[in-house]
Amino acid sequence: MSKLRSRVLVVSLGGTITMTGAARGGVSPTLGAADLLQDLPHLSAVADVESLTLMRKPGASLSFDDLGMLAALLVERLADTDLNGAVVVQGTDTIEETAFALDILVQSGKPVVVTGAMRPPQAAGCDGPANLLSSVIVAADAASRSRGALVVLNDEIHAARFVRKGHTTLPSSFRSSHGPVGFVVEGQARFAFPASTAPGPRRESKGRFAPVALLSIALGDDGRMIGAHREAGYKGAVVEGLGAGHVPANLAPLLGDLASSIPVVLTSRVQLGPTLTQTYSFAGSEMDLLERGLISGGSLGSAKARILLALLLGAEATSDEIRSAFDASAHS
Ligand code: ASP
Predict the structure, then answer these.
(1) Binning pLDDT at 50, 70 and 90, where does residue 332 land?
(2) In the chain, what are the domains?
């Protein structure tokens, strides 16, 4: 009996993978999903692929509205019983955010893979075609189901909730704190662990994002931006602290004050490792800040913590719901 062919939707948003030479020099997004697929004759052996060009933007210009629209489209299209999975092609600058938002908003169980390229199509050794092929392989494979959103580049399969962009130019830029969850080898997705049968933590959301500020703290910061953020009307804030979640001592009362009016989540500017909760007790330490009402971002990087908080506030979650969502998501 012949195996049913998989069907995969490829949605393109732009990014380096779609960029060609611009009149002023450099590259900018011009290609659509169909152009990218044209360069991949091997795809026909993997799946039937449907292409959709939603936009042609660099990753940095994607908006919350774009993410909401993309998530709604995927929820609707993945309900189609003929579709096995979806691949989103976009700029690598914001893959962390898109993939994590889709992890929360698209819980169909079918694979959703986000990919891009570090080198544009005309560069020697461009990585776009290989990344797209590997992504379709993963999206078409039943073994990729029920793993949350995935990020596939450089033949590595990462879980959206852990992956970070770790280098500005290398094709091996994407890394996860616990390593990839699998690899693409000889044209097949190979996962290191079985998919979880238990549903992941459900974070109810209506796909609306509230404005959330991101404050990155550095040595010698005098905190003058903290008041400005409040006045600007943000509904929440993520404070990207130093080390395991630390700020200069003089900022602690200002952040405590901010946390009494809006939810403030504490993350770290360090690439890998969680923020701590019970190790340091000096003024401005994680213990001091948590006692002053900040919420621990745990192992979530700042970009992801901001997405989660924006979605929770967009769904009008209460303070308790926000705390428990961070507990559930941040400490895994
Ligand atoms: N460097 C980025 C990329 O790899 C540019 C972008 O995010 O659009 O796609």
Answers:
(1) low
(2) 7-191 (3.40.50.1170), 212-330 (3.40.50.40)
